[in-house]
Amino acid sequence: MTDKAYNPMTEPRYCGIPTFMRTPYTTDFKNLDIALVGVPYDGAVEARSGTRMGPRQIRDMSSMMRSIHHVTRINPYELCRVGDVGDVHFEQIFDVRASHKDITAFYQNLDEAGVTPISAGGDHSITLPIMRAIASKGPLGMVHIDAHTDCCDEEMNSKYSHGTPFRRAVEEGLLDPKRTIQIGIRGAANSDECWEFGAKHGIRIVYIEEFTKLGVEKVIEEARFIVGNGPTYISFDVDGIDPAFTPGTGTPEIGGLTTIEAQTLIRGLRGINLVGADVVEVSPPFDSSGNTALVAATIMYEILCIMAEAVDKKRKMNY
Amino acid sequence: MTDKAYNPMTEPRYCGIPTFMRTPYTTDFKNLDIALVGVPYDGAVEARSGTRMGPRQIRDMSSMMRSIHHVTRINPYELCRVGDVGDVHFEQIFDVRASHKDITAFYQNLDEAGVTPISAGGDHSITLPIMRAIASKGPLGMVHIDAHTDCCDEEMNSKYSHGTPFRRAVEEGLLDPKRTIQIGIRGAANSDECWEFGAKHGIRIVYIEEFTKLGVEKVIEEARFIVGNGPTYISFDVDGIDPAFTPGTGTPEIGGLTTIEAQTLIRGLRGINLVGADVVEVSPPFDSSGNTALVAATIMYEILCIMAEAVDKKRKMNY
Amino acid sequence: MTDKAYNPMTEPRYCGIPTFMRTPYTTDFKNLDIALVGVPYDGAVEARSGTRMGPRQIRDMSSMMRSIHHVTRINPYELCRVGDVGDVHFEQIFDVRASHKDITAFYQNLDEAGVTPISAGGDHSITLPIMRAIASKGPLGMVHIDAHTDCCDEEMNSKYSHGTPFRRAVEEGLLDPKRTIQIGIRGAANSDECWEFGAKHGIRIVYIEEFTKLGVEKVIEEARFIVGNGPTYISFDVDGIDPAFTPGTGTPEIGGLTTIEAQTLIRGLRGINLVGADVVEVSPPFDSSGNTALVAATIMYEILCIMAEAVDKKRKMNY
Amino acid sequence: MTDKAYNPMTEPRYCGIPTFMRTPYTTDFKNLDIALVGVPYDGAVEARSGTRMGPRQIRDMSSMMRSIHHVTRINPYELCRVGDVGDVHFEQIFDVRASHKDITAFYQNLDEAGVTPISAGGDHSITLPIMRAIASKGPLGMVHIDAHTDCCDEEMNSKYSHGTPFRRAVEEGLLDPKRTIQIGIRGAANSDECWEFGAKHGIRIVYIEEFTKLGVEKVIEEARFIVGNGPTYISFDVDGIDPAFTPGTGTPEIGGLTTIEAQTLIRGLRGINLVGADVVEVSPPFDSSGNTALVAATIMYEILCIMAEAVDKKRKMNY
Amino acid sequence: MTDKAYNPMTEPRYCGIPTFMRTPYTTDFKNLDIALVGVPYDGAVEARSGTRMGPRQIRDMSSMMRSIHHVTRINPYELCRVGDVGDVHFEQIFDVRASHKDITAFYQNLDEAGVTPISAGGDHSITLPIMRAIASKGPLGMVHIDAHTDCCDEEMNSKYSHGTPFRRAVEEGLLDPKRTIQIGIRGAANSDECWEFGAKHGIRIVYIEEFTKLGVEKVIEEARFIVGNGPTYISFDVDGIDPAFTPGTGTPEIGGLTTIEAQTLIRGLRGINLVGADVVEVSPPFDSSGNTALVAATIMYEILCIMAEAVDKKRKMNY
Amino acid sequence: MTDKAYNPMTEPRYCGIPTFMRTPYTTDFKNLDIALVGVPYDGAVEARSGTRMGPRQIRDMSSMMRSIHHVTRINPYELCRVGDVGDVHFEQIFDVRASHKDITAFYQNLDEAGVTPISAGGDHSITLPIMRAIASKGPLGMVHIDAHTDCCDEEMNSKYSHGTPFRRAVEEGLLDPKRTIQIGIRGAANSDECWEFGAKHGIRIVYIEEFTKLGVEKVIEEARFIVGNGPTYISFDVDGIDPAFTPGTGTPEIGGLTTIEAQTLIRGLRGINLVGADVVEVSPPFDSSGNTALVAATIMYEILCIMAEAVDKKRKMNY
């Protein structure tokens, strides 16, 4: 995607074909450490649709990102080879299971090439097929930021909606509930099973009320303790954040995290054994300002910084 | 939905719970001649989604409608009993075929009760299952306003997308291609099969260029000749109209009909044997002004006027 | 409002405090021939409100206007002294009659000073109190562009809503129905009295269907014949134009005039005895693009050109 | 509004004719404990209009609500019979006093039927006529969240604008100032009388600065102490919240409450003797995202939970 | 940009990194016949800015385009090798002359490689430096669609604003005024020099009024006659079209061409000796619907079809 | 701008030609203590443009402001003569240096007349030429709220972009780095020189993380200590605030100050020796709600209150 002659990162923000973070587009996984992936899929949404358009807008707004982090001074591009590998290709977009298979296949290729993915959704159902590819060596731990637990058994008579992925992941042995923490949970429900599943299986649920009371530092401490040193995934639903910041999402719940809290939370996970991450549920049609996509792009950048360190460290240990 | 004490039609336009045209909500089909139906379904769309939210916004904007038509002076509410029967209920919104079955079942109930439906979509795939219910006594004729023929064989490897309904309808014997006219067709395609199917089976395609050359009056004449006296359906995709008027749709094509032309076209069909109609592909998130829904509501009102006459006439003939 | 040192008309369009057409603000009526007036009033609206914010947005967009007309090459600023006299001041904005009195008083001052007004509304109820000031020497003729006749007897149990001004004006002897033409009329109604009043009193109603058939040139001819040489008012409701051009209005009706037709119509009235004009019903909250206000500002400019000629001619004749 | 056959609460959020919270529409007050009421009135506003369109958008967004509260686990629908009783009908929308009478009459009917109302405005002037109906047995206490005290003596030479209701309510003996607390007050004023009235009559005013310093828990404590066990009303103006969360309002003041604080505040009032409540000043045209209406709907749901407990408790005590 | 494994043109419209028309991104000019170029520059605009963001949004909306033209059945991708060559790179974006030099240098590279460019602006000042590269063998003819002649001598004391390019081009011998036609001209001006320059030098100006009177077919005839067989450029300013269709532009003028007229005009130029083209003045921030960019993308596709034929024919003649 | 007969401050908010805070427009500097100035310039922006339109929208929204501050009870209009002096006039808007000279000249006139300015931008490059006029008697101290230090050496190969003003100001001896504090700094950068310049020269940088940790009161304390009694300038970039509050800006960075914090900060500077201030980087096209301009207007009002006290005090000391 980029000429030798110039550095896209230093171009005016509105220039060029928008790849994630203005990294080079590539389909050659061998030359990558970290892949930025688009998953334009919203076929499992029972509320307002539109997240199929998320990856494009996140790519566009991600041009606002630059290289050196102002707090940690990490420059992820100096630690790792980072590229945009494009979007998952879907054969049958109207069939949820077939689409989930396409996702799994795409990430298996990345996994085999030893590339760690950060994904941009798409609805939250995509995390399940991603985990099916990534958790090949055993169940993952997870730090999950969201308004909803996404642990329903069924939604609209389906086992594979965007409200069910983590129940399935636990059932399929992809996710270790005891190494899982859910942060920012809130909003009324028609049944309490979405909250009770986690309670029963050992998932730590930090409702927004407890989050506010504890403060972000204590929650970070607890999250680090829970996920420990095992392989860990970050799943970040933008509706975890308050819709004043991220209105562009399908099932907004008022009373959420601020962006400062969310950023602090991600930075607080520096050093964990990060094997994958996603930012999901960005629905551009519901945010005329584009701020939701800016938040998503910035969260991806924050994750990229700590992931680049983790990948770099692991590589060095392997030598 | 309405008190005896007051007439919703004369209330300020912003008052009350929005039913289509401010008609009474009812699920008792026996007391109805014409049913206004919402079909909030967009599970078969390969472009921008959002038409699942169409019926609600059309209901809201339809409060702008009143009773007496300024040209024909028809008052449909004096000729027929008209009501809003709510939305089709879906059991499995993530399964296209199951959803289509739910639609068919809903319209079979209406059909058995002798009620003629005007539907608000939803994506264009809904017309196929509606026809399965309505065309029980033989294939229908159709006046179809659209930018696209919707006669593809497959889209995204599916036979039942919003680009295929009329090919299926012909194949299933629901639609008589020789009594079908498609008006406003335009826009590039990746294969010419979408245009050739109709040509091969005798569908009359009036591309927008020919429409402009002939003028609306000649096209009306031809449409009336083609559908004749047999039972006829009107399917109105708002992308048949130019997106300056109807930006709120998933696959806009510039260079379409004006609203004056569209209204004249509908009025010109006065007297045909109208057995059903729909207005589809209104996607509210892509139109901040709401004009698309206003256009859709007005087209529904225009259709209601000529349908009320047709139903009234048929009823009188039966006596 | 302007320095001697520079010509606001040639400044970049986004500069300066926005007066109508970037003319000087003045409250000294003696030095004016034509006054541009804001009437920020929407207290008589039974549909969507917001026209109280019309004058400000029209002022803002009117900076797009320049001096020499591209067809007639009229430069109104060379023919007449034109200024922005600010907004009518209201003492009791929650009382329709009191507000109408404030309007009348303001225009009586202009009238006594021999200044001809072009007004920016506000809802259409404002034309009645304007006429009460201007028609002091006898009933006026009128060219009225609108989707609605605004000749209802009552609306929401009020005689003075934005749907009734011209019935009142005829009754009060301010408007000569035989010298009145209404152009662009359309849209359903709950009673036909709004159309029948004009028919009964000799108002010429050109429904949009007839307008389309006749063409703008024939309608101009007829309008000129009807208003003749007597003092004539132009009242321009932006909903006369199709809402694709002017979505920012309270009671949009699809299927209206194009802007080319509207501009041609105004230019066609060159030479009539123009004593006042208004452009009303601009409701900024319903048009995020601002195009409605741009249309309104341009129509004001078109009127200004022919009015400047008329005023200039009259002045010369008086010498 | 609902079939026996299905539960609207579990339908996809975009389906069905939008009633408040998807409760059944009814005009039969006998079968209700709590009524959700729309008051589409903005005739007493001196700033930006548009709240007449509030109830419709709140109804639409309230489909996002579900039944069980995630903190208190209250399911209001199990405790009480809750329904949408539609909108107040206005006879003379251009006359403030007449409109206020229509409001009072509507709520007297509810009051006589023993139904407790939660209302959606509309401008803040509506609370006065609601109190005239509800406070029949003696003055009410009030928890009032707002940027403004709404205790002016006159606004635009009117005693009954949206800036005056609580001064009138005190004067008319409907509101007990000593049992009244106003929270979130801020913003410049042209006179200090709006702040001094309360000070003089014993209203407790918690300016936003003091609110921030005390924290929400202390303010809750004080509010509970002030209103005590007497009958109490909650009046919630969405401009009490910061316009980053609720831009869709007529007189936004920056620097307001967060939604978390507002929700915590309402929950903190659990157990008070709640006899009525409203959420007012939602003006949809100024919020393209709809978040303001989502906030309003959620606040209504939060109030509904504590009101259902209060009503249920009272009913049990009466047995 | 594309895998071997799949055809981006047949992917869902919202998928993938957006290149113009979903063609492959390439900087290897040797393998191209036609280059699609972005010129994100708005440094010479005296009205509303924002066209620097035009190329990105046009790329995004151009995914709506497909391959086979519905009227001519031309598939440009079968006739020519077409690619997206990215954006012009600017060294000093705050310096108009330096930026123009960067543009010229970029197009000289294309010209030397024998590649014909279609450009997406950017403001209209970019056409001058493009012509400096392309017109190396002698002055070009031009079909120019625009509301403005862009033939001012100076704007804001600059010779190189977006209102002056064609005066400079004539002066520099890049443009043959006698082989130039300007279509759609309208809108007031502060001086008549912008119109008189063309008149004096033999440019044919078709004001919108004459365009309407003649009709598009006659104008095509005249345009073909004027440009003849010599090398010809098409410069398409989206403000030539009415702002109801293209609100997203800096200096909108109401009363412009319809999109049908614009498309017909381009198609009517089939067979001319086309050596370059641009579509300019798309300013995304002023169009929340994106329709302006859709119009621009479609006009680019229409031009691409006739250009592919022209390039193909020329190539065959050279053999 | 104002009649004797009425007080614009008490008019409905939507009335009248919008001057800053509804103060009188004047170009007679002799009768002023404090001037409100518009600087509609965005020629030095490397990201999204549009701040040229800032002053107009801030003027419009500033009508929401009133006279008496709700915390300090300061009425600035009783302490000082305050007026809107219009916009800086630019001779060559396409030349950054020439434009900066125009700005300096304008403020020199104000300075010579002894008028203290509060400016509305425009991009942040304008502060440099303002300081060139104001810092005539020696370097200023500064309280700078911003996401960025604006201390780059070059941006896009320019020394005078909106990212460089304070480096230039230090170099030119206009700004005393030791009396400068920057608050709210955050966001990634391509080089750390933007942060290191300040560190090296003694500027106190309060990153948002430290701000959150210290709390606003401690930061105020430190700011007061740093600027001391010397002449001090406040430069307020709206991107210092979180884009949930101020989306309408060119380079938004998530995770910023709240408006309450910003207001508290300004109020905390009461009593400092304030000689000038600006609020910059408001880009209206990126905020459809207008909240950014409302924030900017309110911050201007907050500054006006403490500046009026400072000016009043100084004047009294001079007697």
The average pLDDT value of chain A, as a whole number, equals: 96
Overall 3D form of chain A? globular
Q: Tell me the quaternary state.
A: homohexamer
Low-confidence spans of chain A: pLDDT under 50, at least 5 residues? 1-5
Number of distinct beta strands of chain A: 8
- The total count of helices of chain A amounts to 10
Structure commentary:
The structure is a homohexamer of 319-residue chains. With 319 residues, chain A is α/β, with parallel strands linked by helices. In chain A, 34% of the residues lie in helices and 16% in strands. The first copy, chain A, is built from 10 helices and 8 strands. The first copy, chain A, has an 8-stranded parallel sheet with strand order 2-1-3-8-7-4-5-6, sandwiched between helices. In chain A, strand 4, helix 5 (165-171) and strand 5 form a beta-alpha-beta unit. In chain A, helix 1 crosses helix 10, helix 3 (96-112) packs parallel to helix 4 and helix 8 runs parallel beside helix 9 (259-268). Chain A is globular and about 50 Å long. Chains in contact: A-B, A-D, A-E, A-F, B-C, B-D, B-E, C-D, C-E, C-F, D-F, E-F. The A-D interface holds A 46-48, 156, 185-192, 195, 207-209, 212, 242-244, 247-248, 251-255, 286-288 and D 9-10, 12-14, 64-71, 73, 242, 244-245, 258-260, 263-264, 288-291, 294-295, 298, 301.
